[in-house]
Amino acid sequence: MAPRRRIGEFELIARYFAPLARDFPGAGGLKSDNAVFSADPRRDLVVKTDMVVSGVHFLPDERPQTIAAKALRVCLSDLAAGGATPHAYQLALALPSDWKESWIAAFARGLAVDQRRYGVSLSGGDTVVTPGPLSVSITAFGKVARGRAMRRDRARAGDELWVTGTIGDGALGLLAARGRLKGITPRQGAMLEGRYRLPQPRCALGVRLPGIATASADVSDGLLADAGHVADASGLAVVVEREAIPLSAAARTALTVESKLWAAVLGGGDDYELVLAVPRRKRAALRAAADASGIDVTRIGHFTHGAGVQLMIDGRAAPLPRKGYVHF
Q1: Which pTM does this prediction carry?
Q2: 259 CB-near residues (< 8 Å, 6+ apart)
Q3: In what order do the strands lie in the sheet with 35-38?
Q4: What are the phi and psi torsion angles at 191 (to 5°)?
Q5: Do 136 and 252 belong together in one domain?
Q6: What is the pLDDT of residues 65-104, one digit of tens each?
Q7: Domain ends where: 97, 116, 145?
Q8: From the centroid of its chain, how far is CA 24?
Q9: What does 200-240 look like in DSSP terms, one character per residue?
Q10: CB atoms within 10 A of CB 113
Q11: Residue 22: which CATH number?
């Protein structure tokens, strides 16, 4: 008898955990990364929990300040996708048994720097010792005008697919950090590594997106995967035009040397850019919001009736590489 297939992350959530959230409308059926709570008559709270684990989300020899910043910023990226202004966070820290106080001091300094940068404060949490690897879990809270929080499940057929910044730098940066990227200069390698190690959450743009974008997500699992999550949650298909995807100069160089790296660019994740569903009539408003935020935006496709992700290369449908990172 063939071994039974182990279910994936999203199937696991849908089968076992979504039923537990059925009575809380703000959970959105667990189809979005964020939950929404009514805070007061004028505002809602957008809440996101994320975990980073040594050897999975960051390199085992990473500096504690950088680990702290990444752990916080990946949560703030989801708040940006929800259109929320960062407010506070809680920290759960599972330390390996050989932890040192000097490491904790540096980790706390990293958090303090980003607290000032993003206007958030620590509000509580928990600390334990574990026989396993270092794990950091953060729950971040953001504020948004009542009823204006953005979700994944509200894209409409005909909406355009837009993305912030450049795509693929995070996945290529991990390869660079491991010495597996060919043909790039040391400066390009350092830039890509920086994009992997220290995400830049698009908070300044995120707070301007309610009323412009109909749906959004951040690019954590991979461009095709996260655009697909928006499409799936909205009951639509999404078409992605590869030649329209914005790339950094370093990524272009790497792809010129090894074209097979397109699979990492499209599906590697760790970019923490935003994918947006935007009605065509809102193009000018999106560009104005992007200009005010100092963040580039690029139209790379559209949503349509149907299901799944369609990759187009030079106007022709192409086979999909891996769509994104999977934990299971």
Answers
A1: 0.91
A2: none
A3: 35-38, 43-53, 135-145, 85-96, 121-130
A4: -65, -45
A5: no
A6: 999 999 999 999 999 999 999 999 999 999 999 999 999 9
A7: 145
A8: 24
A9: ---HHHHTT-BTTBSEEEE-SS-HHHHHHHHHHHHT-EEEE
A10: 14
A11: 3.30.1330.10
Is 276 a member of any domain? yes
Write down which residue in 145, 169, 202 finishes a domain.
Answer: 145
Domain with 223 in it: what CATH number?
A: 3.90.650.10
Q: pLDDT tens digit string along 275-288?
A: 999 999 999 999 99
Rg (alpha carbons) of the chain, rounded to whole number: 19
Judgement on whether residues 305 and 198 belong to the same structural domain of the protein: yes
Q: Please check whether residue 201 lies inside any domain of the structure.
A: yes
- The parent domain of residue 189 ranges over 160-318
Span 226-255, pLDDT tens digits = 999 999 999 999 999 999 999 999 999 999
Look up residue 264 and give its two tokens. 């990492």
Q: Are 288 and 236 in contact (CB under 8 A)?
A: no
Write down how long the chain is: 328
